[in-house]
């Protein structure tokens, strides 16, 4: 009997079959992919992809939720993990899921730290705004009920959208993200993720005021963070809250502690009318990810997985409730009636829409930044920082670095790159990252990484 040897092409085919099976598991819980891809929505200067889910018979004047995935994730995986499309079918709202492309960022992170992608009228921020305009026109969405949320890099990009287009959004929810203006480069992003500077509330607020000509009213904002998050430090949540309290004129206001389960601290800050303008949720013991109470029954949503964390708290339900989208009866699956707000005008047919191809499973860490978009005319990707290699990369390790990073850095700081990122100090002979370690080639990727880490205070000189 023949015993054929596996060649490279056979291995590739095997890997593709495994990915297909994994993607069916990730997106097929109850009936296939809920998302459709839409093209032709504008000039798309950020080169993003647009996916959406619109429930059948969606009434005029329904809300829109914009959901931004984290690094290494795609739109379908994030949607299924959080349960956004399932909740949209139950409650009667539309969902827009922008998706990053690997040509823009090799770890599929939104470029929340790049000035060219975080300014009004430019880059990825403008692409997302164009997608929203397409949804408003095509589906007669209520323009006064547009909301945005996201995880990690998507959480930071949520802050970007709220700051650059505040007139577009009634509310937002930042999950394990950072405040707007936290970084304008890779090096600054590293520092902010680890130990963000505690700035005056007025300074945080001014960053948002400078991002657009808008002067209020401001979106209502919900901020979520795990207290055990070592990817994006939980101090970022406090800076985000501070930023939006300043914008709402609530700098000196005392918060109200709302009921919450064990380890769940929920604070709200209310305006003179008694409406909560800003809220924060802190989850004790929770690492980096979206807080979930997964399942399909009452008070349940989404599916647990990598960075989709079953902590007994459904952030999906609570965010919708904060925004004023009634979640009562969500378990029954019947869309809640939504009254149209005025004449929304004709409903044109999208220029191009097709079912989204199921994406691969996303087990790798959705950390916040990896690589900048290559400069115009450049054939090489920018410096790799702060990210494990993508799960589907041809190699499980960063090129040129034969050893893995230690579990902690000097002072006990957790390895911010993840276990798959390799140690630029470890030579082929297994030299430790200490006094006798060899330095990476000057000017190479390793040198850039090490200098960025040292500047951010995440790595010593190697001779401590």
Structure description:
Keywords: Hydrolase, Signal. There is one protein chain. With 464 residues, the chain is α/β, with parallel strands linked by helices. The protein folds into 2 domains: 25-355, Alpha/Beta hydrolase fold, catalytic domain (Rossmann fold); 394-464, no CATH class. The protein contains 10 helices and 15 strands. Strands 8-9-10-7-6-5-3-4-2-1-13 form an 11-stranded mixed beta sheet, sandwiched between helices. A two-stranded parallel sheet has the order 11-12. A two-stranded antiparallel ribbon has the order 14-15. Strand 8 and strand 9 (264-270) form a beta hairpin. The chain is globular. The model is unreliable at 1-6, 16-32, 331-372 and 374-464 (pLDDT under 50).
Break the fold down into its secondary structure elements and pairings:
Elements: H1 8-27, E1 36-39, E2 49-53, E3 64-68, H2 75-82, H3 84-91, E4 94-99, H4 123-139, E5 146-151, H5 153-164, E6 171-175, H6 186-195, H7 201-209, E7 220-226, H8 235-247, E8 256-258, E9 264-270, E10 276-283, E11 290-292, E12 308-310, H9 315-323, E13 352-355, E14 403-404, E15 422-423, H10 445-455
Parallel strand pairs: 3-4, 3-5, 5-6, 6-7, 7-10, 11-12
Antiparallel strand pairs: 1-2, 1-13, 2-4, 8-9, 9-10, 14-15
Helix pairs in contact: 7-8
């Amino acid at each position: 009997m023949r015993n054929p040897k596996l060649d490279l092409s056979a291995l590739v085919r095997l890997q593709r079959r495994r990915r297909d099976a994994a993607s069916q598991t990730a997106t097929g819980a109850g009936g296939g992919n809920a998302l459709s891809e839409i093209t032709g929505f504008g000039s798309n200067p950020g080169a993003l992809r647009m996916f959406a889910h619109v429930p059948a018979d969606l009434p005029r004047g329904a809300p829109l939720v914009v959901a931004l995935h984290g690094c290494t994730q795609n739109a379908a995986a994030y949607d299924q993990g959080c349960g956004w499309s399932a909740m949209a079918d139950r409650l009667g709202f539309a969902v827009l899921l922008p998706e990053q492309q690997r040509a823009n960022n090799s770890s599929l992170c939104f470029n929340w730290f790049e000035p060219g992608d975080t300014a009004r009228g430019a880059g990825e921020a403008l692409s997302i705004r164009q997608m929203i305009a397409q949804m408003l026109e095509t589906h007669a969405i209520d323009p006064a009920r547009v909301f945005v949320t996201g995880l990690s890099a998507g959480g930071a990009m949520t802050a970007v959208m709220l700051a650059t287009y505040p007139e577009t959004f009634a509310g937002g929810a930042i999950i394990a993200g950072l405040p707007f203006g936290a970084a304008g480069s890779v090096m600054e992003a590293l520092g902010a993720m680890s130990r963000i500077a505690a700035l005056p509330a007025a300074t945080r607020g001014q960053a948002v005021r400078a991002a657009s000509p808008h002067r209020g009213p401001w979106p209502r904002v919900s901020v979520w963070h795990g207290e055990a998050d070592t990817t994006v430090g939980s101090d970022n949540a406090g800076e985000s809250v501070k930023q939006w309290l300043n914008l709402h004129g609530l700098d000196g206001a005392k918060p109200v502690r709302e009921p919450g389960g064990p380890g769940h601290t929920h604070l709200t800050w209310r305006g003179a009318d008694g409406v909560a303008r800003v809220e924060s949720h802190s989850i004790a013991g929770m690492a980096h990810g979206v807080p979930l109470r997964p399942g399909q029954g009452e008070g349940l949503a989404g599916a647990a997985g990598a960075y989709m964390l079953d902590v007994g708290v459904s952030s999906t339900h609570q965010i919708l409730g904060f925004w004023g989208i009634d979640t009562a009866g969500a378990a029954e699956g019947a869309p809640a009636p939504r009254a149209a707000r005025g004449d929304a005008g004709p409903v044109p047919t999208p220029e191009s829409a097709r079912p989204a191809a199921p994406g691969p499973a996303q087990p790798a860490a959705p950390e916040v930044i990896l690589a900048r978009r290559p400069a115009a005319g450049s054939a090489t990707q920018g410096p790799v920082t702060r990210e494990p290699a993508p799960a589907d990369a041809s190699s499980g390790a960063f090129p040129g670095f034969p050893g893995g990073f230690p579990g902690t850095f000097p002072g006990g700081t957790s390895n911010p790159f993840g276990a798959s990122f390799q140690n630029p100090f470890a030579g082929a002979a297994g030299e430790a990252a200490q006094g006798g370690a060899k330095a990476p080639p000057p000017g190479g990727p390793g040198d850039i990484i090490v200098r960025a880490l040292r500047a951010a205070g995440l790595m010593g000189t190697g001779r401590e």
